UniProtKB/TrEMBL annotation:
Quaternary structure, from the entry: Monomer. Part of the FGAM synthase complex composed of 1 PurL, 1 PurQ and 2 PurS subunits.
Keyword ATP-binding recorded: yes
GO CC terms, sorted: cytoplasm
Domain Phosphoribosylformylglycinamidine synthase linker: residue ranges: 1-37
The protein's name: Phosphoribosylformylglycinamidine synthase subunit PurL
Length: 725
């Protein structure tokens, strides 16, 4: 892409002259949608971020909100008398276009980038979550992309020693030409280790540490701001970076030593727009300028020109602001970890200036370059939503077997078994449950993490579907006994210049913001990825949310029955099938389920139940509805005999509900009294079978509507393994 005529006129008028080639390339990238959020920034004002303690719910936990490389959140402590606050960082980013062009490197460098965002705040990365979205699973291309993306995430994450503990995988035909790879990272730090991406003082040096700069990833920011073309796999390959996890691991450890020694004044990782993006944004945030000698940048390819040095997105690089007295020590630590190192310039008052040889190739106000892009004024049309129910009749047993055997409800064990999810010895609850649980022993709390979105929901009703995504993630952590405290989002959409696409995108932003506000969960940071459009059309609007909650222990009830309790269904139920996996399989339309009017009370009550000593197992109701929840709960040693009111109650995906196995049903009813219905489903068994009766069906022979067992369900849910192994 190139600068538009209007942008070029605005810039030349501001500068009072024509642009140099390097300046034009910098503005093209930093004023792209990917960097400047020109179509989305005005919409993001809807979110409660915790920045203003006078107005924002949840502000007591927020240390740094949106605008830095990662957000910083203060954890509640079991021992409130302790004087050392413990912080976590939260960040999320997308690597969508690169993962279509080169799934292995695209996904791997997505992990590397979000980890370096964590490093730039002074934190040590402790957990990753990946939310992945692909086209129809039966396509050979989809399986190729899935295999490459998972391998890229696994190889990179495992090599750097950061566990991938949570996430989600969704299949939908509208991702066929444009998959999504969204990766979140959690870091750990204390207040004295905190640094930011805000330049501190003129006279300090700018130091580049890490890999040498090559030509890989050139124009990555502008590439991410365009629709994918039919020949993207070959034509756009140079825009995809190539990662080196072993260098990243050394960079992680070097960064830890630099932070511990208090040698870093400010920091920014080199991501979109490379050195030009990182250094100009760092000084702009501090209201300062810089003078950079591009020839000092350590390079791995010969005869690189100024534009290549400025914009290459070579991986595993950090830009540090360092006091002059500390420069030599920083160099010694870089050498200790066998990392490249160069003093490339210094912080100054005035403009952002880059020289190359005897020529000044960039001389512009940093604030104008980093933040001067005008916002887009785009047309939006309201997306249609179903008003009537139209779907074929289907008996309960057929419907049950249909949805148990789909890729979206299939076991994702093939994916997460490739991840080292226990490295670091903090993972208290492994992948495969509603949420991961991480032991933060420094604060004496368990940190629950849930991440994902359901595109069928937001396609059915963008606004209500996005609300449901927020409630679903909050329910996931509550089902493990945790109280939500903060979230980050990755807002993915198609080409915003299409009114219908932009209308749906506006709705998911507002829906997510409204539900998070209702739940008093600050959205402390995030990422926007637009132009996820290809020859096969736009993706569904996809609001990935990564949400954390805390609890006072490191354990939680599992999503597996013990066979020793009674089964209860808690939460409000709506008898609508809109956005459900059942309708996706059999066809038809319906309104989206009605969401509870008191979601905060529901989430709080569920967390209390999960922590009650009588609770043996918990599992939320999500994709596939109650039928899939029950199927996932049974094991070879524990089954259930269940009765439900009607067939729809098995397959509606109303969020904010969970199945509880308990030895004290009255305690659960007491906790939910006046909050939400508690329905008795039946009893557990010790034979590994599941029988489901339906009250309002004509069952003259009195046989169950559904009968199955754990072995059959496990076989039905092996779709990914069977296809990919």
């Amino acid at each position: 892409m190139t600068l538009s005529d209007s942008d070029l006129e605005l810039i030349t008028t501001e500068l009072g002259r024509e642009l140099t080639p390097a300046e034009a390339a910098l503005f093209e990238n930093l004023w792209s949608e990917h960097c400047a959020y020109r179509s989305s920034r005005p919409l993001l004002q809807s979110f409660t971020t915790g920045d203003d303690s006078a107005n924002d719910e949840g502000a007591e936990h927020v240390v740094i909100g949106p605008g830095d490389d990662a957000a910083v959140v203060r954890l509640p402590r079991v021992d409130e008398a302790s004087e050392t606050p413990i912080y976590i960082t939260m960040g999320i980013e997308s690597h969508n276009h690169p993962s279509y062009v080169d799934p292995y490197d695209g996904a791997a460098t997505g992990v590397g980038g979000i980890v370096r965002d964590t490093l730039s705040m002074g934190a040590y990365p402790i957990a990753l979550a990946d939310s992945l979205y692909f086209g129809s699973f039966d396509r050979e291309r989809t399986q190729y992309l899935l295999d490459g993306v998972v391998e890229g995430i696994a190889d990179y994450g495992n090599a750097i020693g950061v566990p991938t503990v949570a996430g989600s995988v969704e299949f939908h035909n509208k991702y066929t030409g444009n998959p999504l790879v969204n990766v979140a990272c959690i870091g750990l730090l204390t207040d004295e280790r905190l640094v930011t991406a805000e330049a501190q003082s003129p006279g300090n040096k700018l130091v580049l540490v890490g890999n040498a700069t090559g030509r890989d990833g050139l124009g990555g920011a502008s590439f991410a701001s365009e629709d994918l073309s039919e020949d993207a796999e070959t034509e756009d390959r140079p825009a995809v970076q190539v990662g080196d996890p072993y260098t990243e691991k050394r960079l992680i450890e070097a960064n830890e030593e630099l932070i511990t020694a208090e040698l870093i004044q400010s920091a920014r990782d080199l991501g979109a727009a490379g050195l030009g993006g990182a250094s100009s944004e760092l000084v702009a945030k501090g209201g300062l300028g810089a003078r950079i000698n591009l020839e000092r940048v350590h390079q791995r390819e010969p005869a690189m020109n100024a534009i290549e040095i400025l914009l290459a997105e070579s991986q595993e690089r950090m830009c540090y602001e360092v006091h002059p007295d500390d420069v030599e020590t920083v160099g010694d630590i870089a050498a200790k970890y066998d990392l490249g190192y160069a003093v490339i310039g210094e912080i100054r008052d005035g403009n952002y200036v880059c020289t190359f040889g005897d020529e000044t190739v960039v001389d512009v106000p940093a604030g104008f370059l980093a933040d001067g892009a005008p916002m887009n004024d785009l047309s939006a049309t309201e997306p249609p939503t179903p008003e009537e129910s139209t779907f074929p009749a289907i008996d309960a047993a057929t419907a049950f077997n249909t949805i148990i055997s789909t890729p979206n409800t299939a076991s994702k064990r093939w994916i997460y078994r490739q991840y080292d999810h226990e490295v670091g010895l903090r993972t208290a609850m492994r992948p495969g449950d509603d949420a991961a649980l991480i032991a933060i022993r420094e604060a004496g709390v368990g940190l629950a993490l849930s991440s994902g979105a359901v595109p069928a929901w937001t396609e059915s009703n963008p606004y209500k579907g996005a609300q449901a995504v927020a409630l679903e993630n909050a329910t996931n952590v509550a089902a493990k006994g945790a109280t939500p405290i903060a979230a980050v989002d990755c807002l993915n959409g198609g080409n915003p210049e299409k009114p219908a696409v932009y209308g749906a995108f506006k709705d998911i932003v507002q829906g997510l913001a409204d539900m998070c506000h209702t739940l008093s969960i600050p959205v402390v940071g995030g990422n926007v990825s637009l132009y996820n459009d290809s020859t096969s059309g736009p993706i569904p609007p996809t609001p990935t949310l990564a949400l954390v909650g805390t609890k006072s222990t490191f354990d939680a009830p599992p999503a597996a029955l013990t066979g020793d309790g009674t089964l209860l269904l808690v939460g409000h139920q709506s008898n609508n099938l809109g956005g459900s996996e059942l309708l996706a399989q059999i066809g038809g339309t319906d309104k989206f389920p009605v969401l509870p009017s008191n979601p905060t009370a529901v989430v709080d009550s569920l967390a209390r139940v999960a922590n009650h000593p009588s609770t043996l197992a918990t599992h939320d109701v999500s994709t596939g509805g109650l039928a899939v929840t029950l199927a996932e709960l049974i094991t070879s040693d524990a089954g259930a005999r269940v009765t439900v009111q009607n067939k729809t109650s098995l397959f509606t995906e109303t969020p904010g509900r969970a199945v509880i196995e308990t030895t004290d049903p009255d305690a659960v009813r007491h906790i939910f009294e006046g909050v939400a219905p508690v329905v008795s489903l039946g009893d557990t068994t010790t034979d590994g079978t599941l029988t489901i009766n339906i009250d309002d069906e004509d069952t003259a022979n009195e046989s169950p509507a559904v009968t199955t067992d754990a072995a059959t369900v496990a076989k039905q849910r092996r779709i990914l393994e069977d296809a990919l192994e």
